[in-house]
Write a structure and sequence with these properties.
- The chain has 12 helices and 3 strands.
- The protein is mostly helical.
- It folds into 2 domains: 55 residues, no CATH class; 171 residues, Intergrase catalytic core (hpI Integrase, Chain A), CATH 1.10.443.10.
- It has a 3-stranded antiparallel beta sheet with strand order 1-2-3.
- The radius of gyration is 23 Å and the shape is elongated.
Amino acid sequence: MALHFNCDPTSLSLEQVEDYLLYLKEKHTPSQSYFKHTIYGLRFAFRLQGKAALALKLPQLKRHKDLPVVLSQQEIKRLIASPKYLKHRVMLATLYGCGLRLSELQRLELKDLDFDRLQVHIRNSKYGKSRYVVMSVLLKRGLEKYIASVAPIKYVFNGNQRDSSEPVCISSRGIQWVVRESRKTSEIKKQVTTHTLRHSYATHYLEMGLDLVSIKKQLGHESVLTTMIHLLFIMLNMYIPNTEAA
């Protein structure tokens, strides 16, 4: 804003600030997140300069209350079966079968797989915590077949290496591409992301009668309240009738 007006932003009038925000919103804002943090920064600057009244007049940000998308078990099967390559099928199966975050799948190493105990060790995830998650017999077979066929090095899912340096993990964009293309191939109409598989995993466990504390441990949530809120929104999405369609 200082570069745009060539002056101290705190000396601007409310009308000038609103014009600048409109300029950002309509033409030059890289993302909704960028616009949001611009407003937060302006509010802080105005309060710091003793202009709290001006800060209060900045536009209020609406929170999006979109409910999480959940796939049925049949849709999960279609999604996992759709990729041409074994690596991609196993990648989707691991995301869903262990309820992993994208970053957790990305950094998963071969040493983290315990086929004897049917466990996967998730190291230093969100909140800096590690945990063990259960691996199904079916997922074990898929991982064993994939590892025997592809022979990955260090990471379960390696990325592309341009030289003979240390192995690299698959990129987040690579994982997102697999999910996106699999959705298209499977002809699932819902919007599907890597986190959709995590939502679906939690929902299916809840439907099968697993208690909240166990689901919390599997998901790696810091608080059971987070798990409760997480599942509440999902169940609302699934079971509250769509009144708009009535």
